[in-house]
Amino acid sequence: MSGAALLRLQGVSKSYGSVHANRAIDLDVSHQSIHAVLGENGAGKSTLMKLIYGVERPDVGKIEWQGREVRPTSSAEARRLGIGMVFQHFSLFETLTVAENISLLVPGTKAALAARVRDLGATFELEVDPNAHVHSLSVGERQRVEILRCLLLDPKLIILDEPTSVLPPQSVQRLFGTLRLLRDRGVSILFISHKLEEIRALCDTATILQAGRVTGRVDPRQASSRDLATLMIGREMPPPPLHAKAKPGPKVLEVAGLDHATDDPFGVSLSGISLDVRAGEIVGIAGISGNGQKELAEILSGEVALLSAQRDVIRMMDRPVGHLGAAARRRLGFAFVPEERMGRGAVPEMPLTDNALLTAHDRGLVRRGLVRRQHKAAFAQACVEEFDVRTPSVQAEAGALSGGNLQKFIIGREIMLEPKLLFVAQPTWGVDIGAATAIRRRLVALRDSGAAILMISEEIEELFEICDRLYVLHKGRLSPSLRVQGTTVEQVGEWMTGAAGEPAHA
Amino acid sequence: MSALAFILAGTLAAATPLLLAALGELVAERSGVLNLGLEGLMALAAALAFIVVYQGGGHALAFAVGAVAGMVAALVFAGAVLTFRANQVAAGLAIGILCLGLSALAGRSFESLTITGLPKLEVPLLSDLPTIGGLFRQDIVVWLALLGTLAIHVMLRHTKVGLIVRAVGENPRAAQAIGHPVIPIRYAALAFGGCMAGVAGAYASTVYTPLWADGMIAGRGWIAIALVVFGTWQTGRVFLGACLFGALSLAELAAQVVGVQLPSQLLASMPYLVTIVVLGLISSNRRRMRLNSVASLGEPFEK
Amino acid sequence: MPEFVPREHASVRASVLAPFLALALTVVVSLVLFALLGKPSGAALHALFIEPFLSWYSFSEVLLKTGPLLLIAQGLAIGFRAKVFNIGAEGQLILGAICASALPVYLPTSTSPWLWPAMMVLGALGGALWASIAALWRTWLNASEILVTLMLSLVASQLLNYLLLGPWKDPAGFNFPQSVMFQYEAMLPTLLPGTRVNVSLLFGLAATLAAWVLMQLSFLGYQLVVGGLAPRAASYAGFRGGRAVWVSLLLGGLAAGLAGAAEVAGPIGQLQRSVASGYGFTAITVAYLGGLRPLGIVLSSFLMAVITIGGDSAMVTADLPVAAVRVVQGLLLIFYLAALVGVRYRIVWSRIATQATS
């Protein structure tokens, strides 16, 4: 690993308007190394990747590739240099086959590509059927397609953006095996993550970003998680919320044998879903996205209502609600925070006041069919203050808020409805650690006040931190209820891959 | 001539303007853009092409002028929706209104004049068959339209260009991320669609009914848009739909041949009524619509 | 190359400026176009934009045209904000005219003072009924309301032809495709004595007030707007999408039908083909040009009425065909829609930026 670095960034800065996404970044990636870029959401990792991959141009600073200064102005140019990228939200096309997807980027006939896919797949433990349509693949398989697509271009550096967020624990080990194999064959890896343990397990070097600046360069195998965390967020990790033992009350949500064939040709059908949530407890649903989370959320929220004959399949507050729409369920004391903030949980083009009206209209904000302006503004103002939403005013458009602040607003709005049952999906996706901690505290506080909470999340750590019980969703089926105390991450992982309990549940 | 022979002989020619315009719209929609201005594009091209032939420029030049007119109009639309991010529905209507106005303006002095169309080319032997023989006596544009249908089918299904167009329509962000520039590709797809609409309009006014009259496109542009939905965005089915509507548009004449007594307005409404009914039948299969439709259709793209 | 950089907040200034920018660009392009056609451009513009104000009569004609445009555009704009695209107002107008005409056609001797009010009610219902087919098709069969409303308007004009050439043809009308002339009681009261301006202008103003209350103050209007901006947010909140479709199409049909009824009971005085003179399509332009806002539409309907009347003068003074009005209308709309980009984006003129690297 002597001589010039493979990739060297010197004093690279990039701003968007008044936001300094990257400030004077220096970064050295050596040959044959796995280099981590560690930082929390919003630290500037993605911007940095875009600069390296040619999607954006730096305002100032220099990028050197194999000792030569380069200015990639497009991703195509970056690929020609030998830089590949695996996106967090895959850039694949569902209606096309694996081979077709690859041929959009890699020259060659489909037959030749298919052969190379099989070849490389066998070498690097990335097996996937080249003739399969992408929509029929699991998330893990899709990631393999993305990596294969990079490899077929014979890169010297592959950037992976949060690659483990879509994988169950066991598959993470398999991915790491592949990445080590690649390193040993001469491909360097730039591994973007916010997960400390993974970086310590995998990477040779780590560059840590905080608020757009480099705050450290360390050998992660030598550093402690605590050191890394401090470099990443600039202070010690906030302690997890106090978590007293739950005192479960009566059942507030009961789902009994829910079967649902989805309308969406690319969706997941649910079968035999049974679960219950009692007052005063937080119940989690673990699992990798794309296993039926979206469909289950739509059915529980009432956005997709069941037929009248299935009214008893879902009961809330001891009443059959399967046939009811979202508004009717809300009137029973149900509230919901969806995984998409923009365009579902909030209307980005509308001010916060109007976004308060979205679900809080029954709390005196409407009289005789007319909207009461003052009440609306007062509700929004109370929410902003109570939940520490950073915004210039309640007249600001929802779309102008950062992800964490908008999420605080939405969760705040739903909590202010004083729900008996709160359903939250991916509450801390893309949210910075400060906001994520605040959100989890609020959820625990709501539980302690006697509400029932159901939470879908991909983050096992988060589920273990605040849930009392867990279910795991895999391929549209739900595991039996698991007590958090006495269950290990590995056990949950087995349910996530379907390795556990198949016979018991079939 | 029996009514059946009459319809068989005339269907392909009647279907051709619908088919050409619908194929162009199909490619544009496959890339993710809905162009509702088709009716206007066809009318503008029809007026200009007619003028060219009337002034002695010949059919080849007329079709070229029609194609260019359609393309230019489509590019104006493309500029509005792709560069200036205008609402696709409203901008489509706007370009339709504009082109209809321009066509009336250009064609005013040529209203209700006539010209000669194009000769029929016969397939030897087959065209002598009883009843179905008429099917094999068509003008060159019809034959070319059939070839074009095949070419577009192959292009969309089996070539790299088709793959890229489909990819851009399904997931523009991903396409952009892997280096296929969405906006230029959509410009190109719209330009192609405009060209096809232009050729369709030129055919309507210089070959199919060789005369110009304001309003002569008579909803064909809209039916072409509906045909793309009927065909669930697939070339073969769009072709079948065009033939169905071609045959239907002959129903009025065929009814006279047979001597059926129905109000002519009812017969004239048939294509529209059938469009409404078929649209309902096809669209009600939500699952199939979602499976086949273009995911990003009508949505603005932001880099 | 111009580049568009997203703004953090929608710019009010840009949304107010857009129609004026569009008007200016339209004037410039029309000047060039008319010159290319060998028409006297200056005279044409004078005729289009100035002459309507030069006499009381032509100004009163502008007011007469403003009525139906205002009424229809208010109805359509509600739907457009909910992203329910009713582009077949022309057909709903025709049905309104037909339904209203049924009374004087079948009761030619009635002298009831309730005749014209009953015609208005029937007309509005007729328009709403025609639009409800599209609403049913959309909510029940998932069919695009754009295509269905348009097809229905083509069917409506055939239906009008059928009635005028067949059962409703005036036997004493020298075989012209028109119904009998309506009796006095079937005619709308005049609003401004000595002109043809009738109470339909009041219908337009009442519709404006109603639309303003609905869209600015009411919770229903809020739900429609949410459905238009973010359909998934609407279904998340439990606002029913089907209801938005029904409300939008019924209100649009109601307004267009009423406008059609007011045409036959007003300036036309009988049912004839000229009732389908394109108000339904022009109103789409009017609705957008008014920013889909009730008060903006008051201005844009007036502007479009000016251009329409101006077009009639231009035919005489500048030898400009009526089609020129459609061209001007199309230009206005396309320029306006393009100019709206300034509301959400800042325009930055940049050369391909080569960075000043160290």
UniProtKB/TrEMBL annotation, chain A:
Entry keyword ATP-binding: yes
Key words, A-Z: ATP-binding, Nucleotide-binding
Gene3D superfamilies, A to Z: P-loop containing nucleotide triphosphate hydrolases
Molecular function terms from GO: ATP binding; ATP hydrolysis activity
Keyword Nucleotide-binding: yes
InterPro entries per record: AAA+_ATPase, ABC_carbohydrate_import_ATPase, ABC_transporter-like_ATP-bd, ABC_transporter-like_CS, P-loop_NTPase
Superkingdom classification of source: Bacteria
Sequence ranges assigned to domain ABC transporter in this UniProt record: 7-236, 253-500
Protein name: ABC transporter ATP-binding protein
Source organism (scientific name): Rubellimicrobium rubrum
Taxonomic lineage from the root: Bacteria, Pseudomonadati, Pseudomonadota, Alphaproteobacteria, Rhodobacterales
UniProtKB/TrEMBL annotation, chain B:
An example Gene Ontology CC term for this record: plasma membrane
GO molecular function terms noted in the UniProt entry: transmembrane transporter activity
Membrane topology: Multi-pass membrane protein
UniProt xrefs under InterPro entries: ABC_transp_permease
Cell compartments where the protein resides: Cell membrane
Top-level taxon of origin: Bacteria
Protein name, entry field: ABC transporter permease
Organism of this sequence: Rubellimicrobium rubrum
UniProtKB/TrEMBL annotation, chain C:
Membrane topology, from the record: Multi-pass membrane protein
Stored Pfam families: BPD_transp_2
Entries under InterPro entries matching the protein: ABC_transp_permease
Location in the cell: Cell membrane
Gene Ontology terms, MF aspect: transmembrane transporter activity
Cellular component GO terms held in the UniProt record: plasma membrane
Matches recorded under CDD domains: TM_PBP1_transp_TpRbsC_like (cd06580)
Chief localization: membrane
Superkingdom field: Bacteria
Keyword Cell membrane: yes
Transmembrane segments: 12-36, 56-80, 92-108, 114-137, 146-165, 201-225, 245-265, 297-317, 323-343
Keywords for the protein's UniProt record, in alphabetical order: Cell membrane, Membrane, Transmembrane, Transmembrane helix
Database matches in PANTHER family: ABC TRANSPORTER, PERMEASE PROTEIN, GUANOSINE ABC TRANSPORTER PERMEASE PROTEIN NUPP
Name of this protein: ABC transporter permease
